[in-house]
Design brief:
The complex is a heterodimer of chains A (996) and B (178). Chain A is built from 24 helices and 52 strands. Chain A has 996 residues and is α+β, with helices and mostly antiparallel strands. By secondary structure, chain B is α+β, with helices and mostly antiparallel strands. Chain B has two domains: 82 residues, Probable tRNA modification gtpase trme, domain 1 (Gyrase A, domain 2, 2-Layer Sandwich), CATH 3.30.1360; 75 residues, Alpha-Beta Plaits, CATH 3.30.70. The radius of gyration of chain B is 17 Å and the shape is elongated. Classes of the chains: A alpha+beta (996), B alpha+beta (178).
């Protein structure tokens, strides 16, 4: 048995020792311990060094609010985690832990020199120290700040664990499995509601686990607890332990993180480390309890100084006494019970020091009975010891006068500055808070969500009131669900009622300016830092917080916010609510990235859409590129070819004979109904009325602002049926836009839109021999130029498959696009590839497609347009139905800035030196002007063209269409390139090849 | 009949890819719903999520003017043809989407739990014999609840590998028992 373990106490299993290491030393704890309780059982209080001053620190709490005892934990290769709270991490066999922020060792840390130089690190020191000279910022200050930021080391290896997510719907979600939460859950469940009860601890019970002496309904509190839990199970309540409610979002959606395996010696294969639950609850009951505040005085951070409630928890729940001889400094009744429990368990308490002049008579009597010295109306002014507290200096206070100090020897100092209701989740809902002048704390006020708050979380104290309040909350939730609930009553004996006073920093007889009286332990913020911030002009608590970093650590000020506010309010001479409370934000406690990522890791990190033809491309060595969510074949390199060579070959082969291309990703929308043509007329710039069935047209889609949004070839299959194609990335956006107009502007139109993107697989065949390749495969259609001219569409059979065949071209060559039901896409591809062998058919990818279209000046939405390009700018005014009454964006096209002459317009560029321009390069008209030069435009597309034997480019240039033949200049790092403005239609400008 | 089947009795759930059926998206104004029912010989439920069956054809109402129709492939042409003859009197849109989607079937003791890993909707609240359009992870899906632990899920073709990969992870997770 470890030195500080008390046999027979606690809920740990004395027959199950668990071995672990801390900073390389082996220790033994018991099953049920946390790392902190196991270290304390071994007499180890020193667990880390503080962030700024590197002061020695020990566990100050026994829960998730712990600011000090942050350690590195390792559960095997790749499973290192920094900043684990030792007070939360359950012991597991072979756990390796280490302290942080120390060098060379925890006991002797060079960084502690900061503690001596504390004058340099006062509030706002970042802003003051790192201001000047400006040139120091990049090389000196920023690296220094980055190196100093954070406590632990970031893991360097990929996380081998898996994470999961789950959605859960329930009638009632109860957060917090203490007395109030349990009684609320039971009442709600018995009304017939589906109830979920969650608690962040390994077991339900909340503070009851630390108060075994209470008797409820004639049973000891632990027996009562076990009985209640079995009743909850019988009532069908889903009990979730090790599960933290991290955030409370709109419409009663909460995020819960369940720690699934971190406590297990041997997690079963496939088990996720953590699981994120997305809970949607009809009613939420917040029974989160309250968090104890420290008292603020010089040396209140020494290892061995801890919250009285934490000491009580270590004693009763873990069977660990935190020292041989404790002293207590308090301003709340609750600390007395911690002292009593300690003495009753055989420990020693040297004195209870109370800041209040008078104390409840029964507490005085119980203190006297146990032989504990009681000092009321006292303050604490210092602690003794270095790596462990050795004593506390206390002084009597009379009015504003602080009397002479006296040392009380102790090896543990239990402090309590009262309790703060846990308002975090309630604050996430933007519920308003009310300052309660009597208890000097904020309480929940106006609610924005369907929730109830019960127990200590709304300022109640004692088990009787908490149980009663839980019943009320459970009834209220059940009634809100339209259910009848039956109230229950519980009889509490030996309850521990309590009140207290709220404190600023404690008065001292020494220089307050030299006191290291910590408010925020994790960020090393002292009371004098907060007063300095006020002196330097900070008036709002939000400014004080940012200036001092109070409450900005990973514990979000759970212990420090109210103490900081009290001190700031005192310094400003205002009431605390006038100074304000900072906002709590999710997550409630630090949460792993893995829990947020869930299944989105590795192969399922992000959805990758693949076409039916993708397997062929992969088997034939295609290099892929992502295009929106799709992966598309980029080019098909042959052995020894780089991208440049492969693309050049693909381009040549297509223009010389025939190429084939997987166009399945193009968006497709079926527009059907008697008003289909009217709808098309209103959506697209082009006129559709006279387009005959069996014919196609290039369609241009604008936004209301007149700028180009999307384009694509559209075939009219019958009077009332259009096959619309969109860009790959625009498919969903265009359908949404169309539905929006249809449903909100033109609900009178009899037309319906159906996405058919994935119904069809599409193969484009382009080149002078395209018809020769396809003709033998096509049934039921005369493909001759006379019968099936450019821009035709027909339904027929291709390779024996039902098909929609388009004669269209995005290359300038004779071209066809064959759509077949997606399941047959690969068969169609293979059939065409086979048939094309006689013509050396060349499969090509998106890069060749881009080059071939650029040679023809066909635009790519999002590359040659950027959301500010009009049809006129792009040279597409021919696509506007001038006679049309209206279409989306029409009115904007006559706005003065849209018809202004000097807009950026899309033109071609040919460099004089034959070099290839860089896409995105800026263009100037006069290369000799002063810096910074006036930029006239930029290069949008640039390729090596095999067909033209030289590089070509497209660019948006101010007034570009009126600059044909002029020379513009492209300044680059290695000199300025001269280029001639040309038409974008570089190749076969008469379009003879289309007509083949 | 299934194209792929893993039969492990101890599996938390069984995931099968069902063979193709003829699948249509039907749109018609609610005023014409009754008339079109008569013309097509199908019942078009007027409540979202409700289903009907006539012979081997199944219909699921997905919106106030939207239905999904499943028929055996052999009946496809007949349906297309009666719809076409009714079109002039009863304007509507019947678009074949057989190949747009692939149907997965999830069944077995933890089929519902597996779905809750990806579907934000209250799956348990969908009565047996009804359906719903919802999400599974990033994919839009249509769910058909055929039994307490028996679901069909229509997933757009290119989303299927992702959905299956997530379900594989869920399978491993459920097998672990935690």
């Amino acid at each position: 048995m470890s030195r500080y373990r008390i046999p027979g106490k606690g809920r740990v299993d004395p027959s199950a020792p668990v071995t672990f290491t801390f900073d390389g030393r082996r220790y033994q704890g018991l099953r049920g311990d946390t790392v902190a309780s196991a270290l304390l059982a071994n007499g180890v209080h020193l667990m880390g060094r503080s962030f700024k001053y590197h002061r020695p620190r020990g566990a100050v709490t026994a829960g998730s609010e712990e600011p000090n005892a942050l350690i590195g934990t390792s559960r095997g290769p790749g499973r290192f985690e920094p900043n684990t709270r030792a007070t939360v991490q359950e012991l597991r066999a072979g756990l390796v832990t280490e302290s942080q922020n120390k060098w060379p060792s925890l006991a002797f840390d060079i960084g502690a020199v900061n503690d001596r130089a504390y004058m340099l690190f006062s509030a706002g020191f970042y802003y003051k120290t790192f201001m000047w000279p400006r040139s120091f910022w990049d090389k000196v200050y920023e690296p220094f700040i980055r190196a100093a930021a954070g406590l632990g080391k970031s893991p360097t290896e990929p996380d081998p664990d898996t994470y999961a997510s789950r959605n859960l719907h329930t009638d009632v979600l109860v957060v917090g499995g203490g007395a109030a939460g349990i009684s609320a859950a039971l009442v709600a469940a018995r009304s017939g509601a589906r109830v979920v009860l969650v608690d962040e601890n390994p077991e339900m019970g909340g503070s009851l686990l630390s108060d075994p002496s209470i008797r409820i309904d004639g049973q000891g509190s632990w027996a009562w607890l076990a009985d209640q839990l079995s009743q909850l199970r019988a009532a069908g309540v889903k009990l979730m332990t090790r599960t933290t409610a991290i955030g409370y979002y709109h419409q009663n959606m909460l995020g819960l993180v369940e720690r699934v395996t971190d406590h297990l010696d041997q997690p079963p294969q496939g088990a996720p480390r953590e699981r994120m639950w997305h809970v949607r609850a009809q009613q939420v009951i917040l029974a989160q309890g309250a968090l104890e505040k420290p008292l603020v005085f010089d040396g209140n951070d020494r290892p061995g100084v801890m919250l009285a409630g934490a000491a009580q928890t270590y004693l009763n729940r873990y069977g660990v006494k935190v020292g041989d001889c404790a002293a207590v400094v308090t301003s709340h009744d609750s600390a007395y019970y911690a002292a009593f429990d300690l003495v009753d368990a055989g420990g020693r308490v040297a004195a209870i020091v109370d800041t209040r002049p008078t104390v409840r008579a029964d507490l005085v009597e119980a203190t006297r009975k146990r032989g504990i010295e009681l000092l009321t109306g006292h303050t604490a002014t210092a602690t003794y010891g270095r790596l462990r507290v050795k004593g506390v200096r206390v002084n009597p206070v009379s009015g504003s006068r602080v009397g002479a100090g006296r040392k009380i020897a102790c090896d543990a100092l239990l402090i309590s500055g009262g309790w703060t209701p846990s308002l975090h989740l309630f604050s996430h809902t933007k519920g308003s808070l009310r300052w309660d002048a009597e208890s000097r704390t904020f309480l929940p006020d106006h609610k924005t969500e369907a929730c109830q708050i019960a127990g200590a979380g709304r300022g109640l104290w004692g088990y009787g009131p908490a149980l009663e309040d839980g019943v009320k909350a459970g009834m209220a939730a059940a009634n809100a669900l339209g259910r009848n609930a039956t109230p229950t009553g519980a009889r509490v004996e030996g309850d521990r009622p309590g009140t207290g006073t709220s404190q600023k920093e404690l008065p001292t007889d020494r220089s307050a300016g030299k006191a290291k009286a910590f408010v925020d332990f994790q960020n090393d913020v002292t009371a004098k830092d907060i007063r300095l911030a006020v002196r330097e002009g900070m008036r709002s608590i939000e400014h004080v917080k940012r200036y001092t970093t109070n409450g900005m650590a990973t514990d979000q000020g759970k212990m420090s916010n109210i103490n900081g506010l009290m001190i700031a309010a005192d310094a400003l001479g205002k009431e605390p609510p006038q100074v304000g409370l900072t906002t709590f934000r999710p997550p409630y406690t630090p949460t792993s990235f893995g829990a947020f990522a869930g299944y989105h890791k590795g192969a399922t990190f992000e959805l990758t859409r693949k076409t039916p033809i993708d397997p062929w491309a992969e088997a034939h060595g295609a290099v892929f590129e992502p295009v929106s969510l799709w992966r598309r074949a980029w080019y098909f390199p042959k052995a020894g070819e780089d991208m440049h060579a492969a693309v050049a070959r693909e381009c040549r082969a297509t223009r010389a004979s025939v190429g084939m291309f997987d166009a399945s990703t193009l968006g497709k929308i079926e527009v059907a109904g008697p008003d289909a043509v009217e709808f098309m007329n209103r959506m697209y710039t082009n006129p559709w009325t006279k387009l005959a069935p069996g014919r196609c047209r290039y369609g241009l889609l604008l936004g209301e602002d007149g700028f180009i949004r999307d384009d694509g070839v559209i075939g009219r299959l019958s009077q009332d049926l259009f096959h619309v194609t969109t860009t790959t990335g625009g498919a969903a956006r265009v359908l949404n836009m169309m539905e929006d107009y249809l449903q909100t502007e033109w609900p009178d139109l009899d037309v319906w839109l159906t996405s058919t993107t994935e119904q069809w697989a599409t193969v484009a065949v382009n080149g002078p021999n395209a018809r020769k390749v396809l003709a033998p495969l096509v049934e039921g259609l005369d493909m001759s130029d006379a019968a099936f001219p450019h821009m035709s569409v027909a339904e027929c059979r291709v390779a024996g498959l039902p098909a929609r065949l388009f004669r269209i071209s995005f290359t300038g060559e004779l071209g066809f696009e064959i759509n077949v039901p997606a399941r047959h896409g690969l068969a169609l591809w293979k059939a065409i590839h086979e048939a094309g062998q006689a013509y050396d058919i060349c499969p090509y990818g998106t890069e060749t497609m881009h080059v071939l279209r650029a040679e023809k000046g066909y635009i790519i939405i999002g590359q040659d347009t950027d959301g500010t390009v009009t049809p006129q700018d792009a040279g597409l005014d021919w696509a506007i139905g001038k006679a049309k009454k209206d279409f989306v964006g029409k009115r904007s096209l006559s706005r003065p800035d849209i018809v202004a002459p000097n807009r950026k317009q899309l033109v071609g560029l040919l460099t004089e030196d034959g070099s290839k321009l860089e896409e995105g390069a800026q263009i100037v008209l006069d290369p000799n002007q002063k810096l910074p030069m006036t930029m006239a435009g930029h290069v949008t597309s640039s390729y090596d063209s095999t067909a033209l034997g030289r590089p070509i480019a497209m660019a948006l240039i101010q007034g570009g269409l009126s600059r044909m033949g002029e020379t513009v200049h492209i300044p680059m790092p290695n000199g300025t390139i001269r280029a001639k403005v040309t038409s974008t239609n570089f190749y076969d400008p008469e379009g003879e090849r289309l007509k083949a | 009949m299934t194209t792929q089947r893993h039969n492990f009795d101890t599996q938390p759930f069984l995931l099968e890819e069902l063979p193709p059926v003829a699948r249509f998206s039907l749109r018609v104004r609610s005023a014409n719903r009754g008339a079109l029912e008569g013309a097509l010989g199908l019942e078009l439920p007027d409540l979202v999520g409700h289903r009907s069956t006539r012979g081997q054809a199944e219909v699921l109402c997905l919106g106030p003017d939207e239905w999904m129709i499943l028929t055996p492939e052999a009946d496809r042409d007949a349906l297309v043809s009666v719809a076409a003859s009714a079109y002039m009197q009863i304007p509507h849109s019947l678009v074949e989407v057989s190949d747009r989607e692939i149907t997965l079937r999830l069944s077995g003791p933890q089929a519902l739990t597996a779905l809750t890993a990806g579907c934000p909707r209250d799956i348990d609240a969908i009565p047996v014999g009804r359906g719903a359009r919802t999400l599974f992870d990033n994919a839009t899906v249509v769910l058909w609840r055929d039994g307490p632990q028996d679901f069909r899920m229509n997933v757009w073709r290119s989303f299927v590998p992702h959905v299956r990969a997530i379900l594989d992870k869920v399978m491993a997770e459920l097998k672990s028992g935690l």
